[in-house]
Amino acid sequence: MQNCLEWLERTANAKVHGTTKLIPAEVFQEEREYLRPLPVCDQVKRPVICRTVRKDNTIIYDSNRYSVPLGTHTTQPEVRIEALDGTLYIQTLFGEPICEHRISSGRGLLIQSQSHRRDRTSKLDKLLEELDAELNGRATEFLTAIRVDKSRYARDQFRLIHALLDQYGIEAALQAIGFCQRSRLYSANTMRDYLEHQAALSGGTQPVLPVSAIPVDDPKYHVTTQKRPLAAYAKVGDSRC
């Protein structure tokens, strides 16, 4: 406060303009007792480093090759990497974890996980064929779309469809699949929601919504959303404290 008054006397005309009143220094001293320190925020953000996945399902980092699961070259042609505490974290461009390796101090080496050498695609293809056979071969397109769009979760999706098939029967399951295909919603979760909704309507207590009421042709309802790690939300919560 004293510095302000000295500046006015030295540079300005030492007059208080308008209705502004100078607050005595004692008031500031009292208010300081109720002030809280600003949260410490880490302003240093690490740059995002991306790598192209080679055809042999490896990436290059610091003159070494690091393996990624088979099929990553097709589903994730480009990934992001982060080196932290001696570990190389390989993620999708949205930050979803793919795998990790201990960083090697050598040069020209291949660092490969044994699990990355196993071809798991053939097992998923077999599950798809078996499930499609149970559905009388009438769900090939639907199952294939799940296999391609949700390759990482296809096994869980197929298990859920199999459970729904046992619970509701073939005809009800095929009706749900038909609804999903018309709506372009290739998901076992949507199939489950449809079957549960139809089961709740079986008593006639609620009106059946027409399929045309759902604006599925609008592109904004078919957007791939970014998935963030829980740590990102924890940082936001800390900054608000």
A few lines on this structure:
The chain has 241 residues and is an alpha+beta fold. Helix content is 40%, strand content 13%.
What is the terminal-to-terminal distance?
A: 29 Å
Broad shape: flat
Low-pLDDT stretches are: 204-214
Return the average pLDDT rounded to an integer: 79
- The helix/strand series, from N terminus to C terminus, equals HHEEEHEEEEHHHHHH
Give the helix proportion (percent range): 25-40%
The assembly state of the depicted protein chains is: single chain
User: SS-based structural class?
Assistant: alpha+beta
Strand content: 5-15%
Rg, Å, rounded:
30 Å
Order of strands across the main sheet: 1-4-5-6
Count of helical regions: 9
Q: What kind of sheet is the major sheet?
A: 4 strands, antiparallel
Q: How many individual β-strands?
A: 7
Topology readout:
Elements: H1 2-10, H2 25-31, E1 49-52, E2 58-61, E3 64-67, H3 72-75, E4 78-84, E5 87-91, E6 97-102, E7 110-111, H4 121-134, H5 140-149, H6 154-168, H7 170-183, H8 188-200, H9 230-239
Parallel strand pairs: 3-7
Antiparallel strand pairs: 1-4, 2-3, 4-5, 5-6
Helix pairs in contact: 4-5, 4-6, 5-6, 6-7, 6-8, 7-8
Jot down its keywords.
alpha+beta, 9 helices, 241 residues, 4-stranded antiparallel β-sheet, 3-stranded mixed β-sheet
